[in-house]
Amino acid sequence: MRHIISILLENESGALSRVAGLFSARAYNIESLSVAPTHDPTLSRMTLVTSGTEEVIEQISKQLNKLIDVVKLQDLTEDAHIERELMLIKVEAVREARDEVKRLVEIFRGRIIDVTETTYTIEITGNGEKLDAFMDALSSITIHEVVRSGLLGISRGTRVLS
Amino acid sequence: MELTGAEMIVECLKAEDVEYVFGYPGGAVLHIYDAFYKQNDVKHILVRHEQGATHAADGYARSTGRPGVVLVTSGPGATNAVTGIATAYMDSIPMIVITGQVPKALIGNDAFQEVDSVGITRPVVKHNFLIEDVKDVARIFKQAFYVATTGRPGPVVIDIPKDVTVAKAEFSYPSEISMRSYNPTVKGHPGQVRRAVDIMLSAERPMIYTGGGVVLGNGSEQLRQFTRKLGYPITQTLMGLGAYPATDKQSLGMLGMHGTYEANMGMHHCDVLIAIGARFDDRVTGNLEKFCPYATIIHVDVDPASISKNVKVDVPIVGEVVQVLNEFNQALEQTERTPNASALEKWWHQINEWRSQDCLKYDRESEIIKPQFVLEKLYEITKGKAIVTSDVGQHQMFAAQYYGFDEPRRWINSGGLGTMGFGLPAAIGAQLAHPDDLVACVTGEASIQMCIQELATCRQYGLPLKIINLNNGCMGMVRQWQEFFYEKRYAMSYFESLPDFKKVAESYGHIGIKVEKPADVVPALEEAIAQKDRLVFLDFITDQEENVYPMIPSGAGLNEMILV
Ligand SMILES: Cc1ncc(C[n+]2csc(CCOP(=O)(O)OP(=O)(O)O)c2C)c(N)n1
Fold it and tell me: Residue A140 has what DSSP assignment?
């Protein structure tokens, strides 16, 4: 099963490679990983999407907790939570495709953030499924470039990871 | 007080009461060596290869429980140390490895003798640091010692660029340390402890299975109390030997691939398994599907990640071995309940029947020296009191089987990584830590050649080791597997052009004795031991055909042993 693990780690050089190294050394999956400093600049927040049996996920949590740089972690998938991903796409936009793309962007509540005579660059956020659905909707359009952020997650309600 | 980074290192080591540093100089660490030169508190032991430095520090740590300290230069110094760091990591040995690094401005430029030491060692350390500012030296050393020695111990690497060793700053060594991201659990969960005690007292066919964690956690006394109070059989892993006395009647010896018949059968048939400071390694469990099919499993370990990693357990208890055993012992004192005496009597009857198989028997009439015979005699002559290090192979298993360890920290071997070359340098560390004890290195003619240069270190520091070379002229353990599983196709397991070990020992300034007949074994051992101040290299020419029995072939269960 897919799990979203949220990790608070020391904002130090090498912390990211410890996490990445752990996953490759122990042959765990990483579907996506995103990391950036938090409002406390000494800490980074990482969201890591992985998958495996319950036993494997338990091991992943324990092994992550063992890393000295990991301050705290939480499996978001255990509770109600919000998932978001950001995607930037550059598509070909000429003749009737210009209107078609604009319409689709509106339906999916994205934004066109850069325009040339032949291209649009679109920004869209949502969970992974929504972004996939948007890509599918663009099937008749020529896509030049896709950039996805990887998933970010946070608990619903008052629960915080700190 | 303002000090250079190099001087700070010396001060940090003094503050940590470090007795010995095992090392080898080079460009990146010359400032540090200069600082060592100017003081007499911390003694530096010059090895002949950086692998030797790490194993020697490791042997020091295993035999004392205190962290071993290593100092090597950048680049090849650091890479040579990696095998020893990984060896310590696999067996959870506290160790501090200081690696020199090129000056900060050159890092990343493929400078002379530059390697990414932090990157290379990352998967084989508990933690590592790159010191970027001389102001951080004291804090990082304090953290490094704290991390290496607490919780599940392990090696910590400190990489220090050359310019940081010359830079100056105010120095004061912190007395306290706290790390928000590192708080090892100490005590067991009271509810789990109660549940565990309840289950162990209901057992009809109990087994206690203990590992290196009891030795590392200094829990030997508490384990003895616990085991005797219950009257249950106990088996120990290769890493755990000595925590419970081998000669005690409740001891079933070692378990696992080359464990005793009674230990492995006891494991297979038990209904309650009490695992303490052991990690269910594949060499212990055999085929996981067939492992302990009838048992409710209680598992005590300081590392939560060891619990339910390979085998799903019923009662996990995270905590330090000493603490949890104290909690068990208290609970056993307080409860009205006692073990089920009649069930236990039946169980011991069964175990004694397995014991009567005498699974460690071998041909005592042999005309050729049997390796088992040498170790049995070594045991008798040293009255089981020696510190024994070993290399890796058949001789290691024979030592574990035939030298009965009654005390912890007397059996020193590379169990997790299985590093050939470990034995001799580890013995150096153990001998330095225990100058009045007899330290014997049990080795084979293949293993000993992997770090044989350390004979020079022994000469320089006058270390009177006794080297027991079980010379069967082949890589015995490899040959055994080829005999069993590759239809005797002995690919590359035979040694051509072996040196004359007697002469090798002599050329390093030691005594060498070649022993070819069983009748000469005891006199040779006696003579070696009588040479109190000299290293004696005993080259025993042993039976090439001998195999380690019993054996559980891979894929089999613990009840499917091959016996002699
Ligand atoms: C560094 C290293 N390389 C290879 C091995 C694989 N290996 C395990 S045992 C062994 C043979 C050891 O031979 P020897 O030291 O003569 O001991 P014996 O088995 O004959 O007692 C080998 C090659 C190892 N454990 N370590």
Answer: T
Topology of domain A82-153, CATH:
Alpha-Beta Plaits (3.30.70)
Could you say which of B123, B181, B303 has the minimum Cβ distance to residue A10? B181
B222 is catalytic: no
Using a 6 Å cutoff on CB, does residue B413 contact ligand 1?
Answer: no
For B478-514, how does the pLDDT look when each residue is reduced to its tens digit (9 = 90+)?
Answer: 999 999 999 999 999 998 899 999 999 999 999 999 9
Domain positions in chain A are 2-78, 82-153
Structure tokens at B469: 């070379």
Strand partners, A148: A87
Residues 6+ apart with CB under 8 A from A89: A121, A122, A124, A135, A138, A143, A145, A146, A147
**Identity of the amino acid at B100:** G
Question: Residue B97 C-alpha to ligand 1 middle, in angstroms?
Answer: 26
Question: Is B36 designated active site?
Answer: no
Residue B50: active-site member? yes
Residue pLDDT tens, chain A, 162 long: 899 999 999 999 899 999 999 999 999 999 999 999 999 999 999 999 999 999 999 999 999 999 999 999 999 999 999 999 999 999 999 999 999 999 999 999 999 999 999 999 999 999 999 999 999 999 999 999 999 999 999 999 999 998
Specify the pTM. Answer: 0.97
Residues 6 or more apart whose CB falls under 8 angstroms from that of B367 comprise B518
- Rounded Cα gap, residues B88 and B524, in angstroms: 33
**ipTM, 2 decimals?**
0.93
Q: Which atom of ligand 1 is nearest to the CA of B419?
A: 26
Q: Which of A17, A25, A63 sits opposite B305 (nearest CB)?
A: A63
Q: Is the CB of B479 under 6 A from ligand 1?
A: no
The pLDDT tens digits of the residues spanning B250-262 come to 999 999 999 999 9
Q: How far apart are CA B408 and CA B182, in angstroms?
A: 28
Answer whether A2-78 and A82-153 agree in fold.
yes
- What's A2-78's CATH class? alpha beta
